[in-house]
User: Fold this.
Amino acid sequence: MTLHNRIVIDPDIMVGKPVIAGTRIPVDLVLGKLAQNVDVDALLHDYPRLTRQDIQAALYYAQGLVNSEDVYPTQ
Assistant:
């Protein structure tokens, strides 16, 4: 399984929010915990179905969203 297929968007799972494949763990939950400086080992302990590769995939997914944003100068 590559990083690309670790994130799933399915309208039947969490109303279409991006989730970690095979779980109902939303990508935004993982990113939010990391933003709150939650230790990766603690995150893995709290969510046993989560792997380090899943966390990496969530970060990669977020980076892809930011990279695809259009930026327009205001001046």
Q: What stands out?
A: The mean pLDDT is 93. Residues 19 and 26 are 4 Å apart (CA to CA).
